[in-house]
Amino acid sequence: MGRLTGTGTALVTPFKKNGTIDEPSLRGLVEWQIKNKVEFLVPCGSTGESATMTREERRRVIEIVIDQNADRVPVIAGTGTNSTLDSLDLTHDAKEVGVDTVLLVGPYYNKPTQEGFYQHFKRIIEECDVKAVLYNVPGRTASNMLAETTLRLAEEVENVIAIKEASNNLEQIMQIIKYRPKDFAVLSGEDTLTLPIIASGGDGVISVVSNEVPREYSDMVRAALAGDLKKAKELHYKLFELMKANFIESNPIPVKTALHMMGMVEESLRLPLTKMAKHNREKLKKVLKDIKLI
């Protein structure tokens, strides 16, 4: 099928005021993303608050996204945790409801060795017989998967098709790009770094900001991939302040707040995440007004 490319949206999970999954809003988000031409959808990642959802809720979110999508774009479901056994269960669930590719985050809190990373991912992918996008995000997991380990997995484990790299270490990312197998995709995990990563040979992004601006951000990514640097830079800098504002508090607090201001979801988060502080809310509101999203 060739490399995975383009923009995948790390979907927020809308909750009702009582904390349950808001199915109509989730279906609306899926429809809006597809209408605005993102290349694939990624439910149940960090932005989807998967760490505070039950196994049953994660399965249900994936079912809703699969159903609403109706085979229009690929769906890559987040099924990783810091427990290999729990990750196996979640991956089996995703496969049962129709997913063939999963996003597997590096184990958080445990701080595995590089061999631990390798064996964790290898077991899940081989036992569940799924394609996998690895996810390296040391800012959340407290441990970094080195380029050598990523490349070892890409070369030795069948069905490892990509990595979402959010280490912020461009040298590490370039090393993966330079030495990767032919069809292995390198995707940005940081919206502000997507343009330089693509310029270095990367293939796209799994994005937070595309929740709010799916059309413009995916246009930026397509322009960059096509070598139209002028257009890509123009869109990158147009959206730059929003990309930064999405992280003035822990993700997904700002992006959910923005989507609420845009009239798309309730302003409902799972503890330990809380509503945005007033001063940060005003900063976010100004950014949204400046680019005419509200």
Helices and strands, in order, run as EHEHEHEHEHHEHEHEHHHH
Identify the CATH class: Alpha Beta
Number of helices: 12
Strand order of the largest sheet: 2-1-8-7-6-5-4-3
Could you explain how this protein is built, in words?
Helix 1 packs across helix 2, helix 2 packs parallel to helix 3 and helix 3 (84-96) runs parallel beside helix 4 (114-128). The chain starts with 5 loop residues before the first strand and ends with a helix. The chain has one domain: Alpha-Beta Barrel (TIM Barrel). Strand 6 (160-165), helix 7 and strand 7 (185-188) form a beta-alpha-beta unit. With 294 residues, it is an alpha/beta fold. It is globular, with a radius of gyration of 18 Å. The protein contains twelve helices and eight strands. It has an eight-stranded parallel beta sheet. The longest helix is centred in the last third of the chain and has 17 residues, at 229-245.
Summarize the entry for a quick read:
Helix content is 47%, strand content 12%. The protein is built from 12 helices and 8 strands. Helix 4 runs parallel beside helix 6 (147-156).
